[in-house]
Amino acid sequence: MTEPETLHATRAAYDAIAPTYAELFQDSLRDRPLERAHLSAFAELVGAAAEGGGVVADLGCGPGYVTAHLHGLGLNAFGVDASPVMIELARAAHPALRFEVGSMAALDLGDGALGGVLARWSLIHTPPPELPAVLAEISRVLAPGGHLLIGFPATDGPGQETQAYDHAVTTAYRWAPDRFAALLREHGLVETARTVIEPKPTDRRQFQEVQLLARKA
């Protein structure tokens, strides 16, 4: 499968800043109680599901600190990232966990292999025309009843389905929550919960943050 040029560009950009990124964000969950609550609920739901073996893929895992957090919540979690340098850092920081270089659009996993998928701000660099293929792949590897937790920045209003913005690393995209939920439904992923978090006045970007929880029908 030929990789899109955007993936090459994103990989190169994150390879270049990986050590700085790992240092800056290693403790980012500490000051995000709502996100920790989402991750805890996700872990409980996956743990209660019968299929997929409770295995969870953290897609776009970066240096692996959220993968390690999921492991601490009792999940059999492993990380996947397109950046080889990020994966090297993740393996060094968390040698007991599994990390793999890979593409979210072509996962080296069998059908229905997973009980859960986390995509924490990891689809934001996927151009809108390429997103359906990634969601189809996520749906393929999730077992029936498996859960997806995804975070992304929202557009300024429902009339704007997507908006590009100048992310510090490379071009990224915001989504209208209803449009994103509709795309999930098209791929057999039914929204079960949604949280919209308002930005703090001190945040550099005044974007709403969306956390969507979905279940494979």
Short summary of the structure?
This protein has a single domain (5-216), classed as 3-Layer(aba) Sandwich (Rossmann fold), CATH 3.40.50.
Give short descriptive properties of this protein.
Rossmann fold; 217 residues; alpha/beta; 6 helices; globular
How would you describe this structure to a colleague?
The chain is of the alpha/beta class and 217 residues long. It has helices at 5-25, 33-48, 65-72, 84-93, 131-141, 177-186; strands spanning 55-59, 76-81, 98-101, 114-120, 142-153, 162-165, 172-175, 189-197, 209-216. The protein has a single domain (5-216), classed as 3-Layer(aba) Sandwich (Rossmann fold). Helix content is 35%, strand content 27%. Strands 3-2-1-4-5-9-8 form a seven-stranded mixed β-sheet, sandwiched between helices. The longest helix is centred in the first third of the chain and has 21 residues, at 5-25. It is globular and about 40 Å long. Keywords: Methyltransferase, Transferase. This is Methyltransferase domain-containing protein.
* Mean pLDDT over the full residue set: 92
Count of domains? 1
Q: How would you classify the quaternary structure?
A: single chain
The CATH superfamily bears the name Vaccinia Virus protein VP39
End-to-end distance:
28 Å
Task: Outline the fold blueprint.
Blueprint (H helix, E strand, L loop, with lengths): L4 H21 L7 H16 L6 E5 L5 H8 L3 E6 L2 H10 L4 E4 L12 E7 L10 H11 E12 L8 E4 L6 E4 L1 H10 L2 E9 L11 E8 L1
Parallel strand pairs: 1-2, 1-4, 2-3, 4-5
Antiparallel strand pairs: 5-9, 6-7, 8-9
